[in-house]
Amino acid sequence: xxxxxxxxxxxxxxxxxxxxxxxxxxxxxxxxxxISNAVTKAGIDPAAVEDLYLGNGAHGAGNLGRLAGLLAxxxxxxxxxxxxxxxxxxxxxxxxxxxxxxxxxxxxAVGAGVESISQPGGALGGLDPKLTDEYPAIFxxxxxxxxxVAERYGxxxxxxxxxxxxxxxxxxxxxxAGKFEDEIVPMKTVMKLVNKETKExxxxxxxxxxxxxxxxxxxLEGLAKLQPVKGEGKFITAGNASQLSDGGAAVVLMSDExxxxxxxxxxxxxxxxxxxxxxxxxxxxxxxxxxxRLLERHGLKVDDIDLWELNEAFASQCLYSRDKLGIxxxxxxxx
Length: 335
Prior knowledge:
Elements (H helix, E strand, L loop, with lengths): L3 E8 L3 E2 L10 H16 L8 E5 L8 H8 L9 E3 L5 H16 L3 E9 L12 H6 L7 H11 L4 H20 L10 E8 L6 E8 L11 H6 L19 E11 H7 L5 E3 L15 H12 L17 H11 L10
């Protein structure tokens, strides 16, 4: 069987939603910037890209994938699709691109993801009340589901804060070591500033060339002082939850034969993808059910994997997922 290999990747920096460098940037522009730069880094003619899959959770109604592809300079002959699976939309997009290569004879495809919390999302298109009657938690806010995971599975506030501190430390160390410099492509934009006192708005030229969202000066004492967002007895604070962010990323995939023909050394191969559902009131623990399924299909065990990256929206859910799966902390979300 043909292999689907990754030959290039590019992303924007992550900017703070509403207050950061992308607060006035269209979602399609973020995606297009990542896509065009990934294609450029691959050293290929944009016309060689047969299809584009773009993951997005909030803005996909107008087929954002097609729009971003055209904006990125891909020709009208390149297809475009938008994939919506909330947090795993981008990963699902890459999986679809890989499967198109492995199964359907596509030579080159792009898998990408984008999200802008700063830009309003599209309408739901109506709601059948039967859904909320049968699944009352289906639209529960993520922070509430993260609190439920912490309480249901015994993930203490202290454990969450300790993990959050280590996450901040690892991110700062990776930035200091230049780990992200090859992947972040600076993006010129126009940022909206709001005067805190007068509320007057102004627009300024700005360049996003790094991740803006982490706090390298975080301390355990500072984390412990933060009050739970949902009040006493709850767990989630501004310190053990990820910040709302805007950004985009893309990878170029091609068949191993095509990469060999072009003299391109692959960065890696896409081997497999699995999904699993969980209760609507449990956020971010899908890996607990999907990972064993994927490993079993490939004859692997948890300890066979050298590097893990799982969803880290809240410390509660990523700690539960890590510990339930038995993943070595030194191999988990290392940067």
